[in-house]
Predict the structure.
Amino acid sequence: MSTRQGPVVLRRPHSPRAIGFLDLEEVGGWAVKVYGISAWAETPRPALVAATVEAAASVLPSPARTDSRYGIGFAVAHDAADRCFALVDWWHGENEIHQRLFSAPLEQPDALGPHPGEAIGCVWELAVTDFERRAWLRHVLANPEGPDTDAYLTARFAGRV
């Protein structure tokens, strides 16, 4: 059996995008770190950011804090090249990220709905997820002094990917 695959054909060359922390929002008892990404600007449009926070409010479980939930999560508003995306993620059961993915047409950034299909994120969005995973491990799971959720909430990603 050959493992050789056909060539990858890119629609357009990769272009680094700014990814940045926007705000720490309180959403129904949850502390949510909100990030932004845009294909054409330094930050996503405000309507998409607001819709992302609204999407978080619609899916984050209640109550925020239980024996297996900590009331801590993160969200990403992404003005992508072909569609608007919002990822809402929260920590559950010590080491699991639960996620809901939303999308909307570019011309309607405030019309987010559940994203059809099986996507979990793109290379830019997953940079945030990777950072958050590492921060959770460093500040909560593997912290020799014990879990420090305040330190986790102040750890924030910013960069170009």
Q: What stands out?
A: The two ends are 35 Å apart (CA to CA). The chain has three helices and seven strands. The helical segments are 46-59, 123-141, 149-154. The chain has a mean pLDDT of 97.
